[in-house]
Amino acid sequence: MALISRKIEFPIKESVDPNTGSLSFPIHQTSAFLMPEGERYRYSRELNPTVEELGRIIALLENTETATCFASGMGAISTTLLALCRPNSKVLIHKDTFARTYKFVTEFLVKWGVKAIVPELGNEAFVREAKKADIVFLESLTNPILRVYDVEAVAKAVHSNNGLLVVDETFATPINQCSSDLGADVVIQSLSKFISGHNDVIGGSAAGSKHLMEKIDNFRRTLGTTMDPNTAFLTLRGIKTLKTRMSQINRSAMDIAENLGKIEGFSNILYPGLMNHPDREISSRNLKGYGGVVTFDIHIQGDPLGAMKKMSIITPANTLGGVNSTISHPSTMSHRSLSQEEKKALGISHETFRLSVGLEEPEDLIKDLKKMIH
Fold first, then answer.
1. Which structural domain, as residue segments, surrounds residue 231?
2. What is the DSSP string of 328-344?
3. pLDDT by residue for the chain (374 residues), tens digit each?
4. Can you tell me the distance from the alpha carbon of 168 to that of 246, in angstroms, rounded to the nearest whole number?
5. Helices (H), 69-209
């Protein structure tokens, strides 16, 4: 259930260290704590002050009662689903999910008696199937084809069956959409991406009600998918500039998406802010900004990595969300574990590329992208 207030002042103030008055919350780089004085924390796999502070800030961003942090985004996803699922649980997931998430549900969880439901692409089929599910997992902006799922409609559908909605909001970020306000029960972030924003940490988070998060956090402590305090410190640093970064990234990505469609050699431009996007009505209603990822097709001769290496500003890399722009080839990178049939069903071809827009000038990025087709 969403909280009443949504106003957040940026940059968000960290808690001041009571012993030193430090304006930046300190890194508690320790495995254990003096007893009985350190009874609250005891052992850093279970709870660490720096990681706890990051959880407090994440909960503010997501407008939830509480949040817990993990060693990776996949750690957040796997731990959350393992905590919530039971044998015979019906889990609904869409085909155009990050490949490892999709495989985790459809290949790993099914071995433990979970029933995976995978409908046809699009909101209509997904909302219909959500009425039958115990748990729905969706990405509010999908990776890499950037469909926009109607979180509010899906939440109403799954809640009608007393089910739960888990939303991965990594691409949107809480700056562009607050899924808890739209009915999500748990909101997932890969903190490695836009939240931290500097391509120097691996981390994840899950945020929700105290009741649900207690279950998830207990699983985290047992599974050991725990974030280290140095990662928490770096993520806290990144959050300080999150709103400013996303404002610039949103504008630049929109500019690039609009202009790529006018350049010969670029086709099938996918971006939620474009008027021809299949989910334009939903994106214009729910998103405050359309994010920093643009997907497109270009016809290339030969090796895609060779084409990407022609650029001098944009870096070929299997990641996104940093201050420096990166580009990936989903077919051989993020979605390489899918079969050719699965890729084809999603519209991912050998010619599909995913651009993560950073803080460079958009006109410079467009000039750099043109090098791929020459």
1. 49-239
2. E-TTTTTTTTS-HHHHH
3. 555 556 788 888 899 888 888 989 999 999 999 998 878 999 999 999 999 999 999 999 999 999 999 999 999 999 999 999 999 999 999 999 998 999 999 999 999 999 999 999 889 999 999 999 999 999 999 999 999 999 999 999 999 999 999 999 999 999 999 999 999 999 999 999 999 999 999 999 999 999 999 999 999 999 999 999 999 999 999 999 999 999 999 999 999 999 999 999 999 999 999 999 999 999 999 999 999 999 999 987 778 888 999 999 999 999 999 999 999 998 887 778 778 888 887 888 889 999 999 999 999 999 999 999 87
4. 17
5. 73-84, 99-103, 123-130, 151-159, 173-176
Do 191 and 318 reside in the same domain of the chain? Answer: no
Distances from the Cα of 190 to the Cα of 137, 168, 205, angstroms: 15, 8, 7
Distances (CA, A) of 184 to 37, 140, 313: 38, 10, 38
Cα gap 175→163, rounded to integer Å: 26
Same domain assignment for residues 226 and 258: no
Residue at 33 is within a domain: no
Rounded to whole angstroms, the Cα distance separating 105 from 127 reads 19
**How far apart, in Å, do the first and last CA atoms of the chain sit?**
52
Reading the block at residue 185, the tokens are 């029960």
Structural domains in the chain (count): 2
Give yes or no: residues 225 and 193 share one domain. Answer: yes
Please report the sign of the dihedral spanned by the C-alpha atoms of residue 365, residue 275, residue 178, residue 77.
negative
140 and 61 in a common domain = yes
> Do residues 364 and 286 both lie within one domain?
yes
DSSP 8-state secondary structure symbol assigned to residue 2: -
Q: Smallest Cα–Cα separation from 231: which of 69, 74, 79, 356?
A: 69
Residues 75 and 219 in one domain: yes
0.70 surpassed by pTM: yes
